[in-house]
Amino acid sequence: MHRFPSPLLDGYRNFMDGRYIEERERYRALAENGQKPQILLIACCDSRAAPEIIFGSRPGELFVMRNVANMIPPYEPDGHFHATSAALEYAVQSLRVKDIVVMGHGRCGGIQAALDPAAEPLSPGDFIGRWMSLLKPAAEQIQSNDVMTASERQTALERVSIRNSIRNLRTFPCVSILEERGKLQVHGAWFDISNGELWIMDAKTGDFRRPDLEEVVSEPEQDVVAPPDA
Ligand SMILES: [Zn+2]
């Protein structure tokens, strides 16, 4: 029998009984005033690396784009179907986000495929193979490094891939111009799904390190709910 997935219906019921009640006003205000997220987060499709869960975001806070292995292709205005570039264009040009975060993660299946020279196409279209070829030069270099173990090669390419995406991000004129004017910042992050660790990329060196969470200065929350007399 054709049936809508029951985990979704169960989850939706919980949402309406709990989170939605807490966020009702916020949803209403966001519907009326539109969204103004300040952050574009680019993450993998992997079910274990959901940004809204990791960062505990509220509705309207994160503009999220997910694709296989959280990659950004280079700027190619060639009339083809560019879903990733379209989301990026909208976030930067229309929403005017202040920050772009490219977040990779451990045990990424897309990265694993890129490191496997024997990987066969999953279908005649070989969409994943074509998509992961964005990483081909880096993948080939890391593949040929026999001093590293397989898991070290995997983590290395996951992080190289984040820097590669950031380099491609900057080939989009809207990104590089706003970044130069100090209106936009680009960041890298890597999430270890096995232990919940988040690693942040150093903007100067490209190295990844654990953030000092004690140092974080919280900014006042963005007000999406208009005061009653407004
Ligand atoms: Zn992944």
Give an overview of the whole structure.
It comes from Metarhizobium album. Zn(2+) binds at residues 44, 46, 105, 108. Its EC number is 4.2.1.1. The protein is α/β, with parallel strands linked by helices and 230 residues long. It contains nine helices and six strands; from the N terminus they run H-H-E-H-E-H-E-H-H-H-H-H-E-E-E. Helix 3 (51-54) links the parallel strand 1 and strand 2 (62-67). It has a single domain, classed as Carbonic anhydrase (Beta-carbonic Anhydrase, Chain A). The mean pLDDT is 93. Helix 7 packs antiparallel against helix 8 (150-169). It binds zinc ion (ZN). Residues 44, 46, 69, 105, 108-110 line the site of zinc ion.
Number of domain modules = 1
Average pLDDT figure: 93
CATH class: Alpha Beta
Q: Whole-number radius of gyration?
A: 20 Å
Contiguous low-pLDDT stretches (5 residues minimum) are: none
Estimated share of beta-strand residues: 5-15%
What's the total count of β strands?
A: 6
Q: What best-fitting shape do the alpha-carbon axes yield?
A: globular
Helix/strand structural class: alpha/beta
The CATH superfamily name is Carbonic anhydrase
Protein name: Carbonic anhydrase
Function: Reversible hydration of carbon dioxide.
Catalytic activity: hydrogencarbonate + H(+) = CO2 + H2O
Family: Belongs to the beta-class carbonic anhydrase family.
Please supply descriptive tags for the structure shown above.
single chain, 230 residues, alpha/beta, Beta-carbonic Anhydrase, Chain A, 6-stranded mixed β-sheet, 9 helices, 40% helix, binds zinc ion
